[in-house]
């Protein structure tokens, strides 16, 4: 897909990966719907895009609320005439204390934001994209969706679900000209990673700071590049792109059954 002239909806675009991708797609000529619960962050993203000469508008969206997702799509239609790209990027972690010691509301919200919200937005987007003759849906998963991430088991479970959803929707490419893919980053230097410091003091804070200092962290722009590659590659469908320092590559499922439709050929390694 040629990004120029298209309309992209990006959830969680008020900061981090979402903001970096919004700015990148806007620089490629797309109009951006900045969707986030963080209205102040969304306003900053819109201002940055407009300052660079791009087009953007913000709408408050809680991806755990089905009505908010409806409003997001209605806003895109009213503001830009519809949309061609949906980037389901909004996400959270379970936080501390680790599951199973965390409150039930913490792990349930993680599932609701990171998986249920992705499923619901995708479900509602498919018929709208069919009306436009096709489009692209990208999810933010994680390397934690490709292996067992012991530090946050529920987050890992949610991201495994996102990867599974992506691969299971490969046939939409042939059925409706809708390509669904996901990016699976390693640790990214975003507020999601560093926000836990605010609730810690003393030795616990020092330990987390030490661990973060040891981690080679990706920049949000690294993920934006992966998103652009998946949007522009018209053969990419049902793929999970692993992103680590200096590398972006498609990660095949451990077991592959025969398929009757959809092209699951791996992208070239970079």
List the helices and strands and how they pair.
Elements: E1 7-11, H1 16-27, E2 31-36, H2 39-51, E3 55-60, H3 66-80, E4 85-88, H4 104-131, E5 135-140, H5 153-168, H6 172-176, E6 178-185, H7 191-194, H8 202-214, H9 220-232, E7 240-244, E8 247-250
Parallel strand pairs: 1-2, 1-4, 2-3, 4-5, 5-6, 6-7
Antiparallel strand pairs: 7-8
Give a short synopsis of this structure:
The chain has 270 residues and is α/β, with parallel strands linked by helices. The chain has a single domain (7-243), classed as 3-Layer(aba) Sandwich (Rossmann fold), CATH 3.40.50. Helix content is 44%, strand content 16%.
Verbal overview:
- It is built from nine helices and eight strands.
- It is α/β, with parallel strands linked by helices and 270 residues long.
- It has one domain (7-243): Rossmann fold (3-Layer(aba) Sandwich), CATH 3.40.50.720.
- It has an eight-stranded mixed beta sheet, sandwiched between helices.
- Helix 4 (104-131) runs parallel beside helix 5.
- The protein is globular and about 45 Å long.
Q: Bin the strand percentage.
A: 15-25%
Overall helicity? 40-55%
Number of helices: 9
- How do the SSEs run, as a string of H and E? EHEHEHEHEHHEHHHEE
- Rounded average pLDDT: 89
Strand order, biggest sheet?
3-2-1-4-5-6-7-8
CATH architecture call: 3-Layer(aba) Sandwich
CATH class: Alpha Beta
How many domains make up the coordinates?
A: 1
CATH topology heading: Rossmann fold
Low-confidence stretches: 262-270
Q: CATH superfamily, called what?
A: NAD(P)-binding Rossmann-like Domain
Radius of gyration: 18 Å
Sketch the major β-sheet. 8 strands, mixed
Structural class computed from helices and strand pairing: alpha/beta
First-residue to last-residue Cα separation: 20 Å
How many E strands? 8
